[in-house]
Each structure stands twice: as C-alpha cells, then as structure tokens.
Amino acid sequence: FDCIFVSVAWELEVPVLVLHVLGTVDEPTLAARFLLEAEKPRVVVSGHSHQGLVREKSGVLFLNPGSAGPGRFKLKPAAGLLTVEASRVHGELFALEAGGPRKTAEAVLGW
Q: pTM for the whole thing?
C-alpha cells in the first residue's frame, strides 16, 4: 500500500483528499484511484515526487506543492497555496527564489 498519509478534510465544506503518493494526475496509483473513487474529493493535495504541480482535471483540482527545503533531485524549491472559498478553490504554485516567491502556475475550480 503506497499511501503513507491520507486525510479527507470535510470541515472545509469542500472534500479535500491529502495523500503522500498520487502517481500522476493522468495515471494515479492503484491506491490513489481507489481513494479518488471512494472519497470523490474536489481537491487532491499530494507530495512524494517533490515536483510542483497545480492542475484541474474532470472537476478536481490537483496540487503538489513541491518541496520548500533545499533543492532535491535537481528541482528548485517551491511552495503551493490553496485558497478555499464558498464557491471556488484556487490553487497556486510559487518558485521560492532569492528575490522572493514567484508565481509559476495556478488553477481555479468553481461550482
């Protein structure tokens, strides 16, 4: 079983699935597929790969905040920001640079 940490945040009134290993948005792992179908989240926050990503697919916003620590695997430090509002979720990805954070990607999911 490759999901080390799983949490579903219903207190936000938007189902958010937090898991360590997603695989990819297009090809989730077997365990991630099971959780996606069982929990039907609107937002998925994952990690493991340290590769920052924010993307909407089929009514789900996917966010991997990257890694804010020292660069690993030749990846630059990054951080994600997830803003949850009554009728939308806004995900942003930032490169953490010497001159300050720089937005590199964003996605919005509304309903």
A: 0.84
